[in-house]
Structures are given as structure tokens and as C-alpha cells.
Amino acid sequence: MDREWMRQRLGTFEGLVDQYWQIRRANGDTTQEQKWLFEEEPTVVKILRHLNPRRPDLEVLGENEWQVLTIDMREVSRGKGILADMDEWATRLAPEAPSLPADQLHAWVWDAARTFWESAHYRAAVHAAATSINAHLQNKLGRRDLSDAKLIQEAFSEKAPEPSKPRLRIPGDPTDPGVQTRQRGALQLGQGAYSALRNPAAHETGDLAEQEALEQLATFSVVARMIDQCHVVT
Q1: For the chain, which terminal residue's Cβ has fewer other Cβ atoms within 10 angstroms, N or C?
Q2: Cα 78 vs. chain centroid, distance in angstroms?
Q3: Is the pLDDT assigned to residue 192 strictly greater than 90?
Q4: pLDDT band of 87, cuts 50, 70, 90
Q5: Packing angle between helix 74-92 and helix 31-51, nearest 10 degrees?
Q6: Judging by beta carbons within 10 Å of its beta carbon (0-12, 13-18, 19+), is residue 186 exposed, middle or buried?
């Protein structure tokens, strides 16, 4: 919706009305001014009906019993007032957006990231969170030979456990299709987080924007919570 265009068209119409009344009070010929008003009126009415859909029948120009032009500027004034305040309405009356408190992220993530976050080192905070999850996963599985995405792949593999290769399993009946889907999803999410987020955090230069870093920490928080809730099978 082009509010500035609507303001301009209503302002133009208001100026023509002022011009019409000035000439009419001076007993001048208003033929040209009436022509301009009737040319502008369809668009003005369209705008006003859009701004006030409860008045689909509103009109601005008309004639009295003596066939003299009448002009009802009340809806025009109301329309200008609506347009003047619409930007503020969008800000002041918008529903409250949900917030994501960082200290409610999984402890493996926030405890590792907090110091870097407080000093506004957001890329380092993401890297620290990923490193922390990796360390907790190594401890949970008792493995030090793998890390990061490869460790995630081994942990959530659908293969049966092997000697020195325990697995993580989503809680629930392993024959249930929903549990199987979550198992595969945990593998894909974990690998994706390390490949798409941890690796750039470790190797790229320049910092992340605060919002982007928070979203990445939230992703790692989901990964951490899945790992934490899984049980180990040997």
C-alpha cells in the first residue's frame, strides 16, 4: 500500500477544493475547478473506501436541491488523519514479538558462549558453543578419536553399535516410524550445524551480527538438547 501516493492525492484534492471555494466566494466562474474536482474524485473515493471499508458507499461530491455542487470533506480529513498515523500504528500496535533469552539456551551452549558474548565476540561465541557440544558428546560416548561432524555421524548412525563405537538413540520405540524419523533428523541437523555453522565460525574472519549469532546458538542448543536426551547403546 503506497501511503505517500495516497497522501499526495488527498492533498491535491484538498487544494482543488480550497481553490474552488475561493473562486465561488468571489462570484467567479468555477466551471474549470469543478471539472478538476470531478476528475480527481474517483481516485479520492477509492482511497477513502480503502481506508474505511465500513463505508463502501461514501461520496465526496454531490448536488443539493438547487443542483449546486456540494463537497463533503469530512471523510477526506479522516483519511488524511488515518494516513498520518498509520506508520505509528504499525509500530505501537504491533503484537509483541516473542523473545529468545540466551541464558535459557542449553547449558552446554550458553555456558561456553557467555564470556565471548558479553565481550561482543559473536563468532567466537558460536565456535565455543560448538566446541563445548563436541566435548560433551565425546564424554558421553567415551570417544576421543573423532570430533565435530564425523563424531555426530558415528553417534547418530542407524547402524548397530560396534566395539568402541557406541551409538546415540532417540528415546522411544526404535521400531516406531516417528522415532526413526527423529533419529535421522538428529543426524542431519547435527551434521548440518557443524558443516554450515561451526566450520565458518572456526575458519572465516570478521564477526557475525548479533542476531545471526543468536540464531546459530539456538540451532546448536537444539542439537545439544537432542544429544543430552538420547541414551547410549553399546
Answers
A1: N
A2: 32
A3: yes
A4: confident
A5: 30
A6: buried
For 27-85, how does the pLDDT look when each residue is reduced to its tens digit (9 = 90+)? Answer: 999 999 999 999 999 999 999 999 988 888 889 999 888 888 999 999 999 999 999 99
Cell readout for 33 is 475547478
**C-alpha to C-alpha distances, 114 to 29, 102, 157, 211, nearest whole angstrom:** 77, 9, 31, 15
Q: Which three cell numbers stand for residue 65?
A: 436541491
3-state secondary structure the chain: CCHHHHHHHHHHHHHHHHHHHHHHHCCCCCHHHHHHHHHHHHHHHHHHHHHCCCCCCCCCEEECCCCCEEECCHHHHHHHHHHHHHHHHHHHCCCCCCCCCHHHCCHHHHHHHHHHHHCCCHHHHHHHHHHHHHHHHHHHHCCCCCCHHHHHHHHCCCCCCECCECEEECCCCCCCHHHHHHHHHHHHHHHHHHHHHHHHHHHCCCCCCHHHHHHHHHHHHHHHHHHHHCEEEC
